[in-house]
Amino acid sequence: MMLYNQFSLKKLTILFLLFISTTTFAQKAYTIAEIPDPKKTGGGWVSDPDKILSSTDIDEINNTISDFENKTNIQVAVVIVNNFDQNQEDFDFAYELFNTWGIGSKTSNNGLLLFIAKDRRKYRFITGTGVEGVLPDVKLKHIAEQNLLPAFRENDFGAGIINTINAIGIIVLNPENKSELNQLFTQPENNSSLEKVWFPTIAIILVFFGVFKITNRQAKKLTKNEVKPHNKEDYDPGLIKGCAVAILIGFLSIFVLVFFRGFGLLEKIKLAHIPVILFVALALILYFRYLFFISALRNTYNDDQNFSDAVNTFNKKNWWLILFSPLILISLIRQKANNAKESDRFKSILDSKKNKMIRVDRDENIEGAPYLTPGQRKEEVIKAYDYDIWLSTDGREHIIKAWPAEEYTDYTECPSCGFRAYKTDKQITTKSATYSHEGQAKIINECSFCKKTEFIRWVTLAMLVKSSSGSSSSGSSSSSSSSSSWGGGRSSGGGTGGSW
Predict the structure, then answer these.
(1) Stretch (H or E) spanning 137
(2) How many angstroms from the chain centroid is the CA of residue 321?
(3) Boundaries of domain holding 416
(4) Running DSSP on this structure, what letter comes out for residue 105?
């Protein structure tokens, strides 16, 4: 009885160990969401999460498929796993995977998926509707039986896939088939190209030509004929900052397009997109033209009220520009806000006899003489204050009102002369830094009017460092020249499959 119990205990122990080992070494069964998309992980065409293929095999497959895409626009994906969702058949799983990733182009559905499940000994081709004519189910079945299955039965999965891809390449790169594929893929964008592309493109160019003609004529009239130009270099800082931001965005966009291929956007640009791209580009140019015109007005007028009136006059005549460049609406709103803030500034004030006073036109009297002191005029020049001068009708009284200008916060009152022209922590370079030695500068407080100077401290300027960006940009080049995303293709269920 004791021997029997010992034997039973040994059997239970062996069964338990077998259960543990089976559970431990069971292969992962992937769901659709768990299959790594090669476009998001490495930019290639092969997804091999279980490392069944060698890196050499993957490189060869990627290179071959990239050649297909460059010459025929076909996108081919290869997915090989040990196992997948037990609740799905190989066709359902592969079909759902194809449409989830969107293999192929959205307009031509020129995608092909080869899905392989090693443990189930299953393979499945899924085709987009655009390649079914060149790669029908019967032909794919024949290719698999001749190239894929014999190698798989020998557990040589790399050779089987490579031979299969090469056999597909012989078909799709055949001059007759290639011509058929190209005709199919370009057909959606070649139909009525004159009406869908060139007519709206020419119309957009003509319309914007007229818009630029009208605005340029009005700009010349307003800046040359109606005012006397002054040499005041006073540009609206908000407009300058806006231009700088726009230029920076443009530079970064060009950088991304050139060095990162636009994160796949370039591959998605079609002929039908040309009118939209052209409109956006011309709308941006019109916006910059508007900003520089406003800046030219600022340079033309020394008097702030005259400048504001000139801008308002131009905007009333040309509000319709927002239809061609909606960004102009931002500037219009901003200028309306500035007008609201300055409404109190330009309201007439009363003299001692309760009569309305007259504001001195600073385009006629730029220096504000004899009412402004040299210190006040200096505050205007450095943009710490704007001074409005009001005169009584009999000329016996005057009132000066100060308004904070653009650089108000950059200055403080000078302890010596009392004018707001004292700049603190001003850095002056005494010895420039080079690539071989450090530089030196001094920090001082200085008054722009009375020239009072207070030394604060010496600072060391860091030695210049040569850029090494060139060495890192070309260090990692993939063997595949594929784009960074699939094209949004769909499959209607074409393809074939089987077992080995």
Answers:
(1) helix 137-143
(2) 26
(3) 410-463
(4) B
Are residue 201 and residue 255 in the same domain, yes or no? yes
Distances in whole angstroms, Cα of residue 108 to Cα of each of 269, 483, 490: 14, 17, 9
Query: For residue range 289-342, what is the model confidence (pLDDT) as tens digits?
Result: 898 888 888 888 889 899 888 888 888 888 899 999 999 999 899 888 888 888
Tally Cβ neighbours within 10 Å of residue 210: 10
* Per-state percent for the chain, helix, strand, coil, to nearest 5: 50, 15, 35
User: How many Å separate Cα 491 from the centre of its chain?
Assistant: 31
What type of residue is 290?
A: Y
B/e letters for 280-312, b = 16+ CB within 10 Å, e = fewer, are eebbeebbebbbebbbebbbbbbbbbbbbebbe
What is the DSSP code string of 23-58? HHTPPPEE-GGGS--HHHHTSSSEE-TT--S-HHHH
The pLDDT tens digits of the residues spanning 136-192 come to 889 999 999 999 999 999 999 999 999 999 998 888 877 766 555 555 554 444 444
Task: Name residue 439's amino acid.
Answer: G
Residues 202 and 322 in one domain: yes
Q: Are residues 306 and 425 in the same domain?
A: no
Distance CA 51, CA 53 (A): 6
In this prediction, residue 428 has a pLDDT band, given cuts at 50, 70 and 90, of: very high
Q: Where are the beta strands (DSSP E) in 236-363?
A: 358-359
Closest by Cα among 223, 240, 405 to 311: 223
HSE of 395, CA atoms in CB hemisphere, 13 A = 1
Do residue 219 and residue 338 come from a single domain?
yes
Instruction: Mark whether 338 and 263 lie in a shared domain.
Output: yes
